[in-house]
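BUG: 3D viewer hangs when loading the predicted structure for this chain

Environment: internal workstation, default settings.
Expected: structure renders.
Actual: progress bar stalls at 90%.

Input used:
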Amino acid sequence: MSGEKSKKSGDHGEALIEKIFKELLGFPSYRTNISLNCESQKEHAELRTNKSTSHGIDGLIHYNSPLKSEVLEIGYISAKHTVNKYPGSPRSKFKEHFIDLATGLECFHYSDEKTDIEGNAIGVKSTNVTGVLFWLSNNDEDSRNSILEDLSKSQLESLPINFDRIIVVDSARLQFIYQTVSRVKLISQGNYSFVYPSTGLNFKANFNENFGEIFPLDFFAYDILPMRFTINNEIYFLLSCRDNIDEEHLAQIISLAKTFDKLEATSTIFLSFKDYNSLNHDDMIKKVKGRFTDNSFIKLIKVVSHDLDFKNLSNIE
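Structure tokens produced before the viewer hung:
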């Protein structure tokens, strides 16, 4: 890819991620294009293909975690984008992107940016710094077929880099998240929130803190997204599932829905699957529902499908 075309692709990817964080995920103050001094220039130059004396932060967010009480979560965002398909053997390019982010995270711990964020935080006792690596492709097939399993086999454990954690998001996972949240935003006219499950670490959460506008970074690694929305003063609950529908999975999701007992009374509980088809699945759904004895709860369950495409975002400016 030529330098000009590569830059255009990179800028497009950064703009997509910024738009999604600001307009869908609850971060209107999402910051972009921050430069960070490299504190380990000799060591990092040996690891990075980019020999720069600084690190570029594509996006930066922070919030008090709704999943872990008294924890400040800082998100260090790296957005990589390619016009073409992912490489047939993607681990080499992935390792390059991973090292670029990991070395930036290592230097971020010594930065004024981190000190300033922590100094202005209220009600927290500790800080987690999470790197989120978005590696996106403009190819339609890549939005359907995840490469995360292949990337998970990359040999990264021996890298001499210190950082808290990195979450990797490919086109297929972002597609799932975008489809889910965009559809809910559309049908609810923006009256939606994310539902925060009990983790054992958010023990101080009260009723009103069980859902909110912020999409926790942990959710980027979830295969099930819990959301709550209202239409004409009616409250609805949604579990959107990344996996295909089958008997065992559906039974598990119904059982999971029952554990969200802190929600206000809901009119309907939607379970969304990407491959749901009424003709193919409705009889199986009735069969699975029949296993549950709480009829008042089962009557609330409705299975639906999801289908939107993040790559068709327009008017990015």
